[in-house]
Task: structure prediction
Amino acid sequence: MSGEHDERDELDGEDQLDANDEPAGDDLDGDEPADDAGEKREWAVPERGETLFYEEGGSKWIIAIGPVMLALTLALEIAGGGRIHWEVLTIFGVILIGFSIMQVVAARRHVSVRLTEQTLRQGTRVVDLAEITKIYPENTGPDAQDWESAPALGELHAVPRRRKGIGVKMADGKLAQAWARDVERFRTELTEAHLAIAMGLPPKGTSSKGA
Result:
């Protein structure tokens, strides 16, 4: 009898674990799609309309840091009158320039912004402006607003460094933060584009193309 009770307890424990595991998967689905099909739906929105605002995310001038530092090091060795360590300088230059290139590529992929007349791209994610139901005004008071603790749009959870967020409410009721470095101009362009969508105004040049 005790053996039967032990076996039932083990089975009950497994059933309870499986039941507890299911909601966790549902919670993850709210943030990011768990399956491949869901992921494709999340990221497959095409950019449409004329570009109103763009930030590339990373400046190509960062790549110049490597050659400049390499040139300064070489100049110091020449001025010192000793042997020039070409092997060390070459390895140092390759590492430094390679790291700079990787940094620029990553920045342009994950922290670039493009706002068009119908879509907003934050990093690699594209959001249809019709999915934004409200844009919150800037918080000028002492108390924090709910949207200021909301996750950022895009694949990054928080607003990237040296960027500022703009509170938005999505069609599913969730709060989020659109973000940019030049947040004042971005807010103006985003508000005007969102208003045009709400009023049902067609993108610029639509009537001329259709004529």
